[in-house]
Input
Amino acid sequence: MQTPKVVILGAGYGGLITSRQLEKTLLNGEAQVTLINKHDYHYISTQLHKTVAGTASDEKITLHIPDLLKTDKIQFKKGTVQGVNFTSKKVQLESGEFIDYDYLMIGLGFDVSTFGIPGVEENAFKIKSFRSTKAIYNHVLRQFAAYKEDLDPSRLTFAVAGAGFTGIEMIGELIEAMPKLCLKYDIPVSATRIINIEASASVLPGFNKEAIDFTESYFKKNGVELMTSTKILECSPTTITLDNGEELPSRTLIWSGGVRGNTLLEKLDLPISKGRINIDKFLRVQGMENVFCIGDAALFLKEDGTPLPPTAQVAIQQAEVCGPNLIASLRGEQLKAFEYHHKGTVASIGNKAAVGKVFGLKISGLFAALMKQVIEARYLFVLGGPGLVIKQFLKIGKPHS
Ligand code: FAD
Output
């Protein structure tokens, strides 16, 4: 009998933790596993807002994938997935190469939803990948340099669309970054504006009142202009049009208005809702026994019929079940149903403050910021053990200047 081939698409939270599970449990020679990812580095998506603001070094945000694979049970292949033929069981890469599989795991992550608002797709900046966030950072630097020449205030007006989880975290990093950038370019901080535009009546819809109040007063204290109950109607390279009639001169709209599944998923001819693939309780694509899907790419419905949110917490917990289920499938054993256990949510507002709820306890301020670091460290621990945690913390986290 031929050795079964397992192919994992995407080395994000879902793909990497699934790989770790396979490394731990597969016997030597039991399966041939290939992990495919667009780049040879994994980016820590939950910290991408730091790359936008230049508040963390690239080395802290990206990890070399081959270094994370502990054994030769997993082969890493750098490649961009273009399609999958589920009949002939082949993954097609952009390079024209085809990769055969017997079992497939789709962990291709998220794309940004722009809801068809005119000009947003073309002109707003999206927190989507390490590359996209690096491009925003370089754009921000160009605005500072150009302001020295033309003193055009639209260059230093930084708007963030959305005051949900990601929007708040983005604003927090901008608050930290502005004084440093101003110092570097010898520009007064008073020349800069940070604006947060949110359609709902408050920041952090769905969070507790204490978290909302803490965040709004933190923004006020730090000069953030908060525009709640305000919708963006249009965005051009130099202007943001709001539904209150205002034309906001800004060359930087950072879009944190929402996420959806990777747009590639729509081309795969699989059961899909709201841009995400419908999966069963064993994390398999509905109606398929040999194709699994987890993380932001997957739509998992809870017992009450509501979907699990696209979070790293969900992706990691799913991966911890998906790995053993892949192995059970190839051994012909019983699969385990996935159950989600929500441990809490903490949104950082820069390095020194955060808000959220952990194990039912409401937290805010510096303690919450420390808690956020513990959560990030736990992920590194699951991925690479204590060695990786220490290595990442010891890395000179020198931010960009
Ligand atoms: P991803 O981590 O997005 O990984 C997908 C992988 O697939 C990537 O490596 C990508 O390069 C690769 N890929 C994509 N397309 C292709 C292709 N065509 N071919 C090959 N490879 C491809 N969640 C939390 O729980 N807590 C938080 O605090 C939190 N903070 C966040 C802050 C920000 C700024 C953002 C953007 C998200 C945050 N999230 C948070 C959400 C979290 O990051 C995602 O839910 C999580 O990354 C999903 O993991 P995933 O494995 O499904 O996908």
The chain has a mean pLDDT of 95. Residues 366-394 form the longest helix (29 residues). DSSP finds ten helices and 26 strands in the chain.
